[in-house]
Specification:
about 90 residues; rod-shaped; mainly alpha; Homeodomain-like_sf; Mor_transcription_activator; Mor transcription activator domain-containing protein; YraL-like
Length: about 90
């Protein structure tokens, strides 16, 4: 998200109305619901984490301990257990 100068994009009449409520401060204008994107939609982070989680579950199923997996993936043991639990539950 980047800042835009109001005077560059809004008519003076709207700026004057906004100034009645917040004069010289910052205001966040949220996206319309139909323009919102899900987490990870702009990057492939979600895909990469899914691949990592599949690897963790496969290795765990092959007999590698939670402790070793936590060390290999630089995660806490509770995070590894959560990933395993979610993979069992949702696949």
């Amino acid at each position: 998200m980047r800042y835009e100068k109001a005077q560059n994009i809004l008519p003076n009449s709207i700026i004057e109305q906004i100034q009645k409520y917040i004069d010289g401060g910052y205001i966040y204008i949220p996206r319309k619901d139909e323009n919102k994107k899900a987490w990870g939609e702009n990057t492939d982070t979600k895909k990469q984490l899914g691949t990592r989680d599949n690897e963790i579950f496969y290795k765990y199923s092959s007999g590698i301990s939670v402790k070793i997996l936590a060390e290999q993936y630089f995660l806490t043991e509770s995070s590894i257990r959560r990933i395993i639990r979610n993979k069992r539950k949702y696949g």
